[in-house]
Design goal:
Blueprint lengths: L10 E4 L5 E8 L15 E4 L6 H4 L3 H5 L5 E4 L8 E2 L10 H15 L3 E7 L1 H10 L8 E8 L26 H13 L4 H5 L4 H12 L5 H12 L16 E4 L12 H7 L4 E2 L17 H12 L15
Parallel strand pairs: 3-4, 3-6, 6-7, 7-8, 8-9
Antiparallel strand pairs: 1-2, 2-4, 2-5
Helix pairs in contact: 3-4, 5-7
Amino acid sequence: MATSYPPFAYSLFVQPGNRGNLAYKVLGGRVASKAGAKPATPLVMVHGLSAVGLVDWLPLADKLAETRPVLIFDNRGIGGSTLHPEREAEEYRTEDLAGDVEELIKHIGWKEVDLLGFSMGGMIVQQLLVSPHQLPFKVRHVVLAATSAKAAHSDLLSAIPSAAPGGVTLTLEDKIKLVTPFIHIGYDAVFLADPKNKALLDQRVLESVYTRRPGKTIARQVQTIATYDVRKRLQLIPSTLPVLIIHGTKDRSVYYSERKYLERGIPHAQIAKLPREEIGHMWYDYFTVEYWDSLLCNFLDGKPASAPGPTKARL
């Protein structure tokens, strides 16, 4: 099993004002389109709390990139993204994280994009959609996965690993033991008990151990989303913008009950019809990557958001 993450070289976007660098990668940048066909709209994937997008979106991002350019990146202060030392102690809001995404898309030069936001990433995407200023690009389709329009009810905070005491060097086994409960909160009890999923779960634990996820950054992310609430502004999202909501009933990180706020605020949104509704927070680790590729691509390409393909667990 690989212990070098991410498994590719990536680029750094130096943010204006000496604020820091955002680590990003455009996958599928040379996707060929059929003769005479319009090139596929780029997809921007925004991950959530504690996530390293350059790692945690795989292998789904690679699969999606077979048919369209896909942007994955690390949110500020985590993974390959760094803050200027003088700004590391600064607080920030979801508006600031949305501004990071806006600047990055502008830097790449895309004029039209699709957006997929997961968990805190879904909050960031919503913040973009209700921005008081005009975005420098057109948003064509939006996917909101396992997210909320406000600070969510969640079991996640109780599972966040505690920092090791000063001067204590943790072994690999110590780190695995420390992060495992946090990773497992993303899945339901049935998934965790199935031996077929052990390899995947072990992989997700090692990805967490071997990537840079500073405790102070995660704590600041927690503070940021604690004050998040766009429920009254969701009405600013035009009814002409297609929106797809994905949320499993066994989600312990963002309770399934949070979905109602999106449904109320975005009444024209579609609800993804899944083979089984009883899935946890880490939605794309359920079923197969081919299933999610089919469902998402159908929606992004203006077709019914369904997928008749394989539905069993990926591992």
